[in-house]
Amino acid sequence: MPDPATTGTPGRKRYRFREYHVTAAVDPMALPTFEAVCVTGEDHDCGTTSGELHAEDDLTRWIAEHCAETGHDFYHRTTRATLRAEPGAWQ
Predict the structure, then answer these.
(1) CA gap 21, 69 in Å, rounded
(2) So where are the chain's domains?
(3) Contact 61, 75 (CB under 8 A)
(4) pLDDT 10s digit of each residue in the chain, 91 long?
(5) DSSP the chain
C-alpha cells in the first residue's frame, strides 16, 4: 500500500464508537404472532404455511393437523413479538 504522505491521497481514518446499551421490552398491548412452514421433502420442501396465528396452541394444532393429513414431520417455526427499545446509558 502506498504511503499517503507521498501520494497526496488521504490515509485511513479510525473511528471509535462508544457502546450504547439498549434493553428491549415486549409490548404488552401487542399480540405475538406464531407461524410454521412445512419443510418436509427430499427434492424440495412442502412449503405449506400456517399463516400468522396469535396463539401458540393454534399453531400446535395446525402442525398436528397437517402432520396427520400428510405425514410430514419437519417444520420451521417463527415467533414474533413487538418490542419497545428502552435506551440506556453510554459506556
Answers:
(1) 48
(2) 31-91
(3) no
(4) 455 555 555 678 776 666 667 778 888 899 999 999 999 988 999 999 999 999 999 999 999 999 999 999 999 999 999 988 877 766 5
(5) ---HHHH------------EEEEEEE-TTSPPEEEEEE---SSS----B---BS-HHHHHHHHHHHHHHH----EEEEEE--EEEEEEEE-
